[in-house]
Amino acid sequence: MEVKFNAATTQRPQEVRTMDAPLITIDLCSFTEQIRKEKKWKETDRNAITVFKTNGLQIVLIALRKGAEMVKHATAGIISIQVLKGKMQLKTDKQTVKLGVGQLLALHEGIEYNLLAKKKTFFLLTLTTTLADSQDA
Asked: Closest Cα partner for 19 from 5, 9, 35?
């Protein structure tokens, strides 16, 4: 298996980290601290960092300030949302769910939803992706 690394970005110009390898450990506490210190978190109501990405699967740590909303959209793959800190609300056309620390939600592909942070919230978004999606990003 080929080990893959992220590319530097304008937000993280010095950072190179392993994104895919036969075995990866992910220090969520360090990543949480990192995104809290970044300019984007200081200037906006959200920040995020992809902590793992391989063919068919992506894991993103997302931080939202109280009141921040991820507008209605649907994904092409199945997702899970696990709240690490805070409280949020996920709303579909048919259901509204409140999520707190330690709760995990799974949602099938194609279902439109929006998220609203009820408090400052940190969560893991895990999503299945197609091979084309994994290669494009």
From this structure: 5
Which pLDDT band, with edges at 50, 70 and 90, does 137 fall under?
A: very low
d(CA 103, CA 29): 18
- Of 43-57, 104-118, 122-136, which range is least confident? 122-136
Lookup result for tokens 């109280």: 66
Q: Is 86 left (phi over 0), alpha (psi -120 to 50) or beta?
A: left
pTM of the model: 0.89
Distance CA 32, CA 38 (A): 10
* Cα–Cα separations (whole angstroms), residue 130 to 13, 17, 75, 79, 127: 28, 23, 11, 13, 10
